[in-house]
Design brief:
Length: about 290
């Protein structure tokens, strides 16, 4: 019998935690990265020391859990359409950071970005300034302050203006930014347009903003797009609604948004262990 994707992701998190014996300190942030897309993704992060060296693979329904210390500042995104060999060398249709599975530099545009600065008060946002390749959301859990969910639920690949579309085999695989396509000062917020007073929303940035109102649509979109939270963990979900229930591990317990935790999702531990045994037997990678 096939498992519901939400059940599979929740159980995989539990088994990963049990097998690894993961422990986190109070000053660290837990990042749970989940692939709800129907396609395989190759998430990337820079700096990537705390994220499996900067790159890894997630098949549909899979998740991975990482921790990053306070002081970490960086970005996380998804790469799509990748083909890597056993040595980790290859290429991607979008978000590529060169020819390596492990990213040491920024991804090639277009890419939907999750950006973070971890401090006593964390700052985070979802940015479409470099274009769009997959829907992405950032949900903080059990933090303090104005801990809102950031992200882009809409799939801009289906509504991307023709002149911004990145295609592969006649299929739109990404939506480029106007700056990337036209390379003008107005669209790139540089030169005479290099400040908040002169760099204003454009026809294209408004298209992005209408589709994804809680995301950066251009360089000076700060007031409505940047979020703050204190002492929180984060779920980065690809291809999921910002209202979708998601889970993370904190203080040796699994916490889920909009629930009473693990019990409400999977009942009891014998179900976890039984299903975990089935998943391991099937060779599912956590």
């Amino acid at each position: 019998m096939a498992l519901h994707p939400q059940m599979m992701i929740t159980i995989s998190l539990v088994i990963t935690i049990v097998l690894l014996g993961q422990r986190t300190c109070e000053s660290a942030r837990v990042f749970t990265i989940v692939n709800y897309c129907k396609e395989t993704l190759w998430p990337a992060a820079i700096p990537g020391d705390n994220f499996n060296g900067g790159g890894f693979v997630l098949k549909p329904g899979q998740s991975s859990v990482f921790t990053a210390p306070v002081g970490w500042s960086g970005r996380i995104w998804a790469r799509t359409g990748c083909n890597f060999d056993k040595s980790g060398n290859g290429n991607c249709q979008t978000g590529s950071c060169g020819t390596s599975l492990k990213c040491a530099g920024a991804g090639k545009t277009p890419a939907s970005l999750a950006e973070f600065t971890l401090a006593q008060l964390d700052f985070y946002d979802v940015s479409l300034v470099d274009g769009f390749n997959v829907p992405i959301s950032i949900k903080p859990l059990h933090g303090k302050g104005n801990c809102t969910t950031a992200g882009c639920d809409s799939d801009l690949r289906t509504t991307c203006p023709k002149e911004l579309s990145l295609k592969s085999n006649d299929k739109t695989v990404g939506c480029r930014s106007a700056c990337d396509v036209f390379n003008t000062d107005e669209y790139c917020c540089r030169g005479n347009f290099g400040n908040p007073s002169t760099c204003r929303p454009t026809f294209y940035s408004k298209k992005f903003k209408d589709a994804c109102p809680t995301s950066y649509s251009y360089a000076y979109d700060d007031p409505s797009s940047i979020c703050t939270c204190q002492g929180t963990d984060y779920i980065i979900a690809f291809c999921a609604s910002r209202k979708k229930q998601v889970c993370t591990y904190h203080n040796k317990k699994l916490h889920c948004s909009g629930s009473q935790g693990l019990k409400s999702l999977i009942g009891s531990w014998w179900i976890v262990m039984l299903t975990g045994f089935s998943l391991l037997t099937l060779g599912i990678v956590f």
